[in-house]
Specification:
This protein is of the alpha/beta class and 143 residues long. Helix content is 47%, strand content 22%. The chain has one domain: Metalloproteases ("zincins"), catalytic domain (Collagenase (Catalytic Domain), 3-Layer(aba) Sandwich), CATH 3.40.390.30. The chain starts with a strand and ends with a helix. The mean pLDDT is 91.
């Protein structure tokens, strides 16, 4: 059976080698959420790009930290496509500095949040289930 796949496109890069650690978090989260092998695409961008996406798809004309775009379709070849994630590196850097944590940790938290969304959870519509699940996954996966 094929393994899940997470691909990254870095429009902005924090330096270092965060991709393997982020991929590991995403794959572990999908495993814990019992997804079938799927593919996820991740864009790490700037505030201007995420603001444009937020305006276009959510009618909110402001930057945000992370967006998720569930797809749930089967590709002609390869794995089913679960969806796309966009993370603003600029916002992640500000949030990390404000919390006194490394930016890589903040990127892990944001990616985990998006993966949970892609798996069908929605904190804007549920009664706290997504928040509880995310807290549990953070404790298990992010050190």
């Amino acid at each position: 059976m094929a393994s899940a796949r997470v691909t990254f496109r870095w429009q902005r890069h924090p330096g270092g080698r965060p991709t393997p650690a982020l991929r590991k978090i995403a794959l572990a989260a999908m495993d814990r959420l019992d997804t079938d092998p799927v593919e996820v695409g991740v864009l790490v961008c700037d505030d201007a790009t995420i603001r444009s996406l937020n305006r276009r798809f959510r009618s909110k004309d402001k930057p945000t930290d992370v967006l998720s775009f569930p797809a749930g379709f089967t590709q002609p070849e390869g794995l089913p496509y679960l969806g796309d994630v966009a993370i603003s590196l600029e916002t992640a850097e500000r949030q990390a500095a404000g919390a006194g944590v490394p930016v890589e940790r903040e990127l892990k938290v944001l990616l985990l949040h998006a993966i949970v969304h892609l798996c069908g959870f929605d904190h804007e519509k549920d009664q706290g289930e997504m928040a509880a699940l995310e807290t549990k996954l953070r404790r298990e996966l992010i050190r």
